[in-house]
UniProtKB/TrEMBL annotation:
Organism superkingdom: Bacteria
Taxon lineage: Bacteria, Pseudomonadati, Pseudomonadota, Alphaproteobacteria, Hyphomicrobiales
One Pfam family from the record: Mannitol_dh
Its EC number(s): 1.1.1.-
Class in the EC hierarchy, top level: oxidoreductase
Domain Mannitol dehydrogenase N-terminal intervals: 34-282
Origin species: Chelativorans intermedius
Protein name, UniProt field: Mannitol dehydrogenase family protein
Length: 495
């Protein structure tokens, strides 16, 4: 699959793409919008958009096409790239022993990025839109770290409550659109979170209804009663796009400004609770169920939690990718010990898969050398990811009287990473929305380790849990004194 001059990706050139590149068989001019998706990153295009594309390849769901959207200024760059290629995307599947590519076309437009979100509101108010999807990251739902409810003190929430017709958040825009739909006598849309949050649909409901209640209690009651927010579990490893990925797609003969690479695995488990219809995603591999909880628990704890177990050690030791971490004997040994002794015991089986079998699958997926998933990407936003993926298991382990030594080591590695430099002396660039605060506390924790656990917004009362706090103090002291490798060897029983 190569060409002397790459073909510029566009509707007009689809038939000119190199042989072996799959492409839409459907007439894209016949597609009608049914979904607005907020957050058009790589994951959405490799996952939810792909499932819809597969349906369209079978002549189905032609009235469910996607309108892309974003609410942050940086989304404008992606909008420009995708509109310039008719919203087409090249997906490159990287199996350990093979590569393949296809061009997908389920997205038909990308809405303007505006501070007041008026175009987004108008689009979501259109009754043809029956689902609003979101991939806005785990930390993007304005959850109060103390209560777990909506953070009504956040400046964005205060703004949207005071200016409901000119909101700055995706959720404020959803509330404004639902207000217009209610006034017009239209049914609401379903809100479909595709982020890695336990009970992501319930959290989305909490955010939307809670925000509406601050400005219009009657509207909040209507949304609560009439709208739907199904829970879902999404799974595929999708690295960021950089120069290597751009070179790869050109080598395949395509000029695509925003290609996506992904592993040869996808899973999507969705609660079948929609208020205005849905595509038949189950016909192309998704699972509809009344109980998403067990699936999301297994995935969030073993896969997402496992990513956090690996990433900070990898950063400190200058190991560039997750696959490289799995090939690093000391990091891989730590990963397996934490998983087997402290994560897997707090995961229930799902139909057809035990936690141990799922862990073996994750070890194979993480070890795929073709997936250049950087430790930096995986370590991003640790303040949300440790809180969501690991610390709930720490609490369960403490309640059950189980081991938390590995968890304490993982948190100590994160604390050391947030000091801002690797063990070879190179700088770690800011990698968390709270980076400045984390760095300040991390440096203080070098002399007084408990300072790290006293961040109540992250750890709550865990600083007062002796088995965890004492182990954390020991590990962080050892890491600063003798280094990460010494700590990993000691944990594995070799030091």
């Amino acid at each position: 699959m190569s060409a002397t001059r790459p073909i510029k990706l566009s509707n007009a050139r689809l038939n000119d793409l190199p042989e072996g590149i799959a492409r839409p068989r459907y007439d894209r001019s016949r597609l009608k919008p049914g979904i607005v998706h907020i957050g058009l990153g790589n994951f959405h295009r490799a996952h939810q958009a792909w499932y819809l594309h597969r349906l369209m390849q079978e002549g189905r769901a032609l009235d469910w096409a996607i309108l892309g959207a974003g609410v942050r200024p940086y989304d404008a760059a992606m909008r420009e790239k995708l509109l310039a290629q008719d919203c087409l995307t090249t997906l490159i599947e990287l199996a350990p022993d093979a590569r393949s590519a296809e061009v997908i076309g389920a997205m038909i437009d990308f809405l303007p990025i505006e501070q007041c979100n008026s175009a987004l509101i108008r689009a979501m108010a259109d009754p043809r839109i029956r689902i609003v999807g979101l991939t806005v990251t785990e930390g993007g739902y304005y959850i109060d770290p103390g209560s777990g409810g909506l953070d009504i003190r956040h400046p964005d929430i205060i703004h949207d409550a005071a200016h409901p017709d000119a909101p700055r958040t995706a959720f404020g825009a959803m509330v404004a659109a639902l207000r217009l739909r209610r006034s017009a006598g239209s049914v609401p849309f379903s809100g479909l979170s595709c982020d890695n949050l336990r009970g992501n649909g319930a959290i989305l409901r909490q955010t939307v209804v809670g925000l509406a209640r601050l400005s219009d209690p009657d509207l909040a009651d209507w949304i609560e009663a009439e709208a739907a927010f199904p829970n879902s579990m999404v799974d595929s490893i999708v690295p960021a796009t950089g120069p290597g990925e751009l070179d790869l797609v050109r080598e395949m003969g395509i000029d695509d400004a925003a290609p996506v690479t992904h592993e040869n695995f996808r899973e999507w488990v969705i609660e079948d609770d929609f208020c205005a219809g849905r595509p038949d995603w189950d016909l192309v591999g998704a699972t509809f169920t009344a109980d998403v909880h067990a699936y999301e628990m297994m995935k969030i704890r073993i896969l997402n939690g496992g990513h956090q177990v690996l990433a900070n050690a990898g950063e400190l030791l200058s190991v560039p990718t997750i696959a490289d971490c799995m090939a690093h004997p000391a990091i891989a040994a730590m990963f397996r010990k934490v998983q087997v002794e402290e994560i897997v015991p707090y995961v229930d089986p799902v139909p057809g898969t035990s936690p141990s079998e799922y862990l073996a699958l994750i070890e194979r997926r993480f070890s795929n050398p073709e997936i250049r998933d950087t430790t930096r990407r995986v370590a991003f936003d640790g303040s949300s990811r440790h809180t969501g993926f690991l610390l709930p298991v720490v609490r369960e382990a403490l309640a059950a009287g189980g081991s938390v030594e590995g968890f304490a080591l993982v948190e100590a590695l994160w604390a050391r990473m947030c000091a801002g430099h690797r063990e070879d002396g190179t700088q770690i660039e800011p990698n968390d929305p709270c980076w400045a605060d984390l760095m300040t506390v991390a440096k203080a924790a070098r002399e007084r380790p408990r300072a790290w656990l006293e961040q109540e917004g992250i750890y709550g009362d865990l600083a007062a849990a002796p088995p965890f706090a004492e182990a954390f103090e020991r590990w962080l002291t050892l890491i600063w004194k003798d280094g990460t490798m010494t700590a990993l060897a000691k944990y594995a029983g070799n030091g």
